[in-house]
Automatic annotation (TrEMBL):
It comes from the Bacteria. Residues 66-355 form the PRISE-like Rossmann-fold domain. InterPro entries: NAD(P)-bd_dom_sf, PRISE-like_Rossmann-fold. Gene3D superfamilies: NAD(P)-binding Rossmann-like Domain. This is SDR family oxidoreductase.
Amino acid sequence: MNRIALIVGASGIMGSNLARELLATGWTAYGLARRPQTDIAGLLPVAADLLDPASLEAALAEVAPTHVFLTSWQRNDTEAENIRVNGAMVRNLLAALAPKHSVQHVALVTGLKHYLGPFDSYAQGNSLPPTPLREEQPRLALENFYYAQEDEVYAAAARDGFTWSIHRPHTVIGKAVGNAMNLGTTLAVYASICKQTGEPFRWPGSRAQWEGLSDVTDARVIAKQLAWAATAETARNEAFNITNGDYFRWSWLWPRLAAWFGIEAVGFDGTVHPLEAELADKAPLWRDLATRYGLAEPDLGRLASAWHTDLDLGRPIEVMTDMSKSRQAGFHEYQRSDESFFDLFAQLRADRLIP
């Protein structure tokens, strides 16, 4: 069977890993973006604006995917605007594909804000759910652009007859440049700056995160789950959490990350030290480091997403995710989380993104 993938967000952390996974297993794969990258061998670029139906119609005129993977979103100033924009992006794409009658399955990547709430009220007050987080937990009584995206997929599936899967990762660890949510690279940049300045690698987040259990999602692992769910009978019309399959405490992992860079680690000292403030004046320093070491990206803002790292590490509760549902359905991929970070750091150094 000829499997043809359309990956929205193929240049991002998840989409790029998914593209490589699918191409390695015989799929034809298209990568859609406003300015698609072409550095993935075999990936066919599609240049289109998801907010412009005419642009989509023209760009997809000769593309008839069997499977659609939505791994991208657009950040806006308010949750209401997030809902309007990101809902429209999903709706426009699926409407443009509907006349082709080619789509068999649509996979949507959201995340743990499904359980923790949107940016405007993230992990606050009465919205805090019990952990481990499980897929059967109901939606929160809050506006959330993830819910809007899901509803667009459900409506199009009812109209066009395709199956769907929803994928909810925790913090995704993998390489990307210009990504809005990139904790692994943010910490690598912070550690690299600490090494150059001699300052300690200080824990920026909350006591609950420092002491509590947590997990993360390797981009290679979610790529494998997306590929599995695209064709598995047991994954049809289901929502799945996706993490590496292990748990850790940041109090255990933080000194290990520091040791990789050969720097001093400082743990929680009773105060939150947001990375957004820590890195606010470091852009000139990073540009100097880029010149000195011949780095490929001199713009600190295209590597570090301190605002989102602060959201993750500053939460007032421990956060871990239950993986029982997809395990029972047949997905058994596993990855040690400390090695996810070490593999990323090594890749960033090899690609001259950190010194």
